[in-house]
Design brief:
The protein is mainly beta and about 475 residues long. The termini are far apart. The structure holds manganese (II) ion.
């Protein structure tokens, strides 16, 4: 009997699915596509044929474009009542999870063989001629035989590199700028297709497997095709972004190890731009338009969100981030297009900074143009017990004249003046008598300076 397998797989005292007891009328060539959030998201295509629904599970949904064939796994025939079924199949039952109707309508049947089916679908979302053909056992492929419904549809592009922000101070007038919080994390582009997310880093490295918690973003977008830009962020116990914590997530291999670390150091994907949507690049649109499209996607889930963007009031926003102990703000010109891979100045990063005076306890030599000369000073933070703790080194901010002055002033010695901390490799120690004023963004967890810049030399005895 056609529905035996369907009935064998189910317990109708538990599942709300129909039992197929109603006798079937003559075929009316109806179809349904259900979006099924089972263990793995898929779409079920069901075609009315010989009194039952011939069914295929499509892991990535219906291909909108003849250039992309997709897998279709033949499943057991379903009863006609299933044309209208939506609801929650209990966990533990066969196909447990939420099922909703994604599209429905009628079709013309051009061919219906055991290994090949050709139909013209007339649905709300899908219209056009499709062929399903068996490739081996339960595995079939589905191919769109018509041109895309949208004739200008483009395939999801690959290899986009993210737009970068130029370090800057706040513009005098911020009316034409939108400001977002600067997240201290890992930049990631997300390509979403057929409910699946692929994550790529700034250099193009794929990191999908590293951040399994972002997978749900794909399921939440369903069949929407898009490329998103954002930042993966981990938070410390005080709820502040912590690059230190995030580092525990980087370069981890092995599914079970990744899953374990994802539990202890979860990340959130902060999405701030959309570069491609439903077959079209959006990169040439102004920021304001892209932002409207992004907000329309309503990306807000357990491990992803769309952080706020404010037009104007840059100084207030920067002050807010300073009070919150955040790194700073990103400013984006509201009329600017997305310039992939560029640091054009249409995006700026404005960082809050701190200043501190530290003792110069050594130096390292420079490279390239500075080789043979001081490249960075190694800095010590005085401790309560009178020892020096090494706080890292600062090379940025050292100019030619300053380097000459330091080379004349610093007195090398054989032994380390540092009692603790990690001393950089290749350090030449000096008498710890002179100090430097250093601007930096934050302390790392091991109390070394992040983004230090040498601002001023304070000779021994100077304030
Ligand atoms: Mn299913």
């Amino acid at each position: 009997m056609p529905l035996d397998e369907y009935r064998d797989r189910r317990d109708f005292t538990t599942t709300p699915e129909p039992d197929g007891a109603t006798p079937a009328p003559a075929d009316q060539r109806r179809f349904v596509i259900q979006e099924h959030h089972a263990t793995a998201l898929h779409w079920d295509l069901r075609l009315e044929h010989d009194g039952v629904l011939a069914s295929w599970a499509l892991p990535k949904g219906i291909p909108p474009d003849p250039r992309q064939n997709r897998l279709a796994v033949r499943t057991e025939d379903h009863p006609l009542e299933y044309l209208e079924f939506s609801g929650e199949i209990p966990r533990g039952e066969y196909g447990g999870g939420l099922m909703g109707i994604w599209d429905e309508g009628t079709f013309d049947e051009e061919k219906f063989r055991d290994d090949e089916v050709i139909v013209v679908l007339h649905g709300e979302r899908v219209t056009g001629r499709y062929v399903l053909f068996q490739t081996g056992g339960k595995n079939w492929m589905i191919h769109r035989m018509d041109p895309p419904e949208d004739p200008d549809r483009e395939l999801l592009p690959e290899g986009i590199t993210p737009m970068l922000a130029k370090p800057s101070s706040l513009p005098a007038n911020t009316d034409d700028w939108a400001f977002e919080i600067k997240w201290d994390g890992v930049r990631a582009l997300a390509s979403v297709q057929g409910g699946r997310v692929r994550l790529h880093g700034r250099s193009g490295l794929e990191m999908t497997a590293t951040y399994p918690e972002v997978r749900g973003l794909g399921a939440s977008l369903g069949m929407v095709e898009c490329i998103l830009d954002g930042e993966l962020v981990a938070f410390d116990d005080a709820g502040k972004p912590s690059f230190e914590r995030l580092q525990q997530r980087i370069n981890i291999a092995g599914t079970s190890r990744i899953a374990r670390v994802a539990q202890s150091v979860p990340v959130t994907y902060h999405v701030f731009d959309v570069l491609f949507l439903e077959g079209h690049s959006t990169m040439s649109l102004p920021y304001t338009d892209r932002r409207r499209l992004l907000e329309g996607l309503q990306l807000d889930g357990p491990s992803w969100s769309t952080p706020a963007s404010h037009v104007g009031a840059g100084a207030e926003m920067l002050e807010f981030t300073r009070q919150q102990g955040l790194e700073g703000v990103i400013g984006k010109r509201v009329d600017s297009r997305y310039e992939a891979g560029k640091r054009s100045g249409a995006w700026i990063k404005v960082k809050n900074s701190q200043r501190i005076q530290l003792v110069i306890g050594g130096y390292t030599l420079g490279r390239d143009g500075r080789s043979g000369h001081i490249g960075a000073v190694v800095l010590g933070e005085p401790q309560a017990d009178g020892t020096l703790r090494c706080a890292g080194k600062a090379g940025s901010g050292l100019t030619g004249a300053l380097i000459d002055e330091l080379e004349a002033l610093l007195v090398p010695r054989a032994t380390s003046p540092f009692g603790s901390g990690t001393v950089p490799a290749g350090t030449t120690f000096v008498e710890p008598v002179h100090r430097a004023e250093i601007e930096f963004t934050e302390w790392t967890a091991s109390r070394t300076l992040r983004h230090p810049t040498f601002k001023a030399l304070l000779r021994a005895g100077e304030d």
